[in-house]
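User: Predict the complex with 1,3-dihydroxyacetonephosphate.
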Amino acid sequence: MGHYDEYKRRVLRITQRLSADGYFGSKSGSAGNVSMLVEDEDAVVITPTHLQYSLMTIEDICVVDFDLARIEGERKPSIETPMHVATYKIRADVSAVIHTHQMAASALSVLNQPIPPLFDEVTLAIGKSVEVVPYALSGTRELHDNVARKLANRCHCYIIQNHGALCIGTDLDETFTLVELLEKSATIYMQALATGKPVTVLPEKTVAQLHSAVIARQDREIARKQAHHVARMKVAPEAEPSH
Ligand code: 13P
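Assistant: Here is the predicted structure with 1,3-dihydroxyacetonephosphate placed in the model:
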């Protein structure tokens, strides 16, 4: 089994599940991408560009380094690879990135409408809000710069204006759940706005408490990664052949 095969298998499984559940906008197209960061390596396992998800196999999944150079895979990686890599570079807590064209979040993306904190379990998972990343053409440096500027808010979901959504998390399965929670929030927010009645949001104090819990969880994950890295560095010299 290859060094990256387990990562590739997980990326493929979640990608095909997202596609089957309709989170890529169409079931037959290629509109969205999924990646994982390899633990203790500046390497990203990511879906290839422009390939129907149901036809994708383990061999199609790509591995690139932080300079976007190919480590493994015959296919060209997703055009949004720079956006995924920028996310891993900026957010040390993040190890999985999912870009979707999911319906309700995409509806809010054409209204340029952020989602306020509406439910406590969603806010505890996503953070204090879902902000809108300003529009730029798919796959461009401008788009990944716009995304990079938003990541400092330490939230886990973003709407990309006139495009779709971005969900980022510590683990791929957890990030899949973020996609679902984002869609729930976006759907209910759209329906509530459509009534024309005022929408109530969570009290400020509650939002502050929940967002602090999100930050604390991220800090624990960053500390875990650092401790793992230090432990690995200590073990490594013993593995060196003695002269
Ligand atoms: P890829 O097929 O290159 O991943 O691009 C799809 C997409 O969603 C562009 O934003």
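The chain has one domain: 5-235.
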